[in-house]
Amino acid sequence: MLPPVQKRLRSFSMTSGRSGLSLLQPDGGRFRSWCGSCAEARKSVGDCDLPERACIERNVAIQAPANRRYQKHRGGSYRASHTNTNDTKSTAADIKPIEKEGIIMSKQTFVITPKNYSRPLEALGEHAAVLASGEVGSELFLKQGSRGSTSSRYRRPSESVPTKTFSKAIHRLKEDVRSWYELHRRNGATNVVVWAIYLELLLMLVLLVLLPFDTVQVGGRYRLIKPLNFTMSMAMYLATVVILLDYLRASMWWKKVIGWGVSICILTAITCITMQAARGTTSHFNNSTPFDSAVSSLMDIVDPLNGVFVLVLLIFAIQVRYDVSRSSQLGIAFGLFLFLAGSAIGGVMVAQGQSVVGVAPGGPGLPVLNWSTTGGDFRVAHFLGIHALQILPIAGWLIDRLKGLPRRAKPTAVVAVSAGYVLLMGFVFMQAMNGVPLVRM
């Protein structure tokens, strides 16, 4: 860089902006003999022959840092702007004295010098950025990249890529949960659904305590296992409805109707299932007594009624009424649609009078789930359809958080995942129709 050029002139005010130049008063006026205001003055170290006024009003060449030059703006201020480094023409600033009222201005000598900014340097081998500072010193920071070293010996533990990515994901999850909680706290329409969740969790806790003491079997398994499975599934369903209603852009009337309707249907169904399990009999497809037939018929009513409220939520999703991203919107829509498909499969089981195909009810089945291992079972496809309401919206939310995926490709990815889920659900349904078990044992 060329040495700074100093100028001898009257006291003036100049705004340099972000140019990197500063005005400094020289020590003892040692540069007094070199004006540097023009080419004639720089030919020798002697005094300039130009009159002082001509010196002030003339363009002054200033050696600024790379890619910067002064431009005069309105109001007499001077700001830095970028220029081409290949431009060999010298840049200039029109220095004009500014008179200040009430202040006696004296002639002083000023030197325009560049500030010592830190400049990054590249070192061979380890791709490093060196902060060079003449005042403080230098500090070395390793930089990872295609040309940099990835050796763990030179890498800071806190800068580890997997750890950093995981911590960012946890941070974003906390932010999303916090924002949802603030939204839920202001939404009073879902309080009844929340209380229904508490009742489901309380019942699940009671069943877990009583399960080790259960000795009665119904349908090849202990009688408390079925209501325990249903309480967990229904609690997840109610929690999903709460989140959907919190993000739904609809009137409070719609939210209260859906919340109350879903809660009544779910609590009625779990009451029937638990009561029949306590009596030591089945709750579905049981017409052995008038009372059992009435309980089974009541459940056959509340299940389709719950599907009506889910259909309303699906219509809102088609109208893009949820205050979420497009990827999450698609996940919600596909999840609600497959939930209704799973409910329709439940209607097929009701019409058939049993959940298995090709074998008698009550045969051998998988542990806990009790899915038939000797014949086809519609409960597999029913399970996938019901819980698509949780799986696909979560998949849409996760895809929306992928930074490596372009924004336009994210909805397509959600559609692809949903299509694969539909194919899986259709495959197990056709398998059950043909009397083939999911797992043959």
Question: In what range is the share of β-strand residues?
Answer: 5-15%
The counted number of beta strands is 13
Note the main sheet: 3 strands, antiparallel
Shape: globular
| Mean pLDDT rating | 74
Q: Tell me the count of domains.
A: 3
Treating each run of at least 4 consecutive H or I residues as one helix, how many helices? 11
The quaternary structure here is single chain
CA radius of gyration: 39 Å
Uncertain stretches: 1-47, 52-103, 117-159
N-to-C SSE series? EEHHEEEEEEEHHEEHHHHEEHHH
Structural class based on helices, strands and sheet pairing:
mainly alpha
User: Helix content range of the residues, please?
Assistant: 40-55%
Strand order of the largest sheet: 1-7-2
Distance between the termini: 83 Å
Describe the structure concisely.
This protein is mainly alpha-helical and 441 residues long.
Which tags fit this structure?
single chain; 441 residues; mainly alpha; 3 domains; three-stranded antiparallel β-sheet; two-stranded antiparallel sheet; 13 strands; 47% helix; 11% strand; disordered N terminus
Give structural notes:
The protein is globular. Helix 4 (191-210) packs antiparallel against helix 5 (225-247), helix 6 (252-278) packs antiparallel against helix 7 and helix 8 packs parallel to helix 11. It is built from 11 helices and 13 strands. A hairpin with a 3-residue loop joins strand 8 (128-133) and strand 9. It folds into 3 domains: 6-114, no CATH class; 116-159, no CATH class; 186-433, no CATH class. 47% of the residues lie in helices and 11% in strands. The termini are far apart. The protein has 441 residues and is mainly alpha-helical. A 3-stranded antiparallel β-sheet has the order 1-7-2. A two-stranded antiparallel ribbon has the order 3-6. It has a two-stranded antiparallel sheet with strand order 4-5. It has helices at residues 39-42, 52-57, 161-186, 191-210, 225-247, 252-278, 290-318, 326-352, 379-386, 388-400, 409-433, and strands at 6-9, 21-24, 60-61, 69-72, 78-81, 92-93, 108-114, 128-133, 137-142, 217-218, 221-222, 356-357, 376-377.
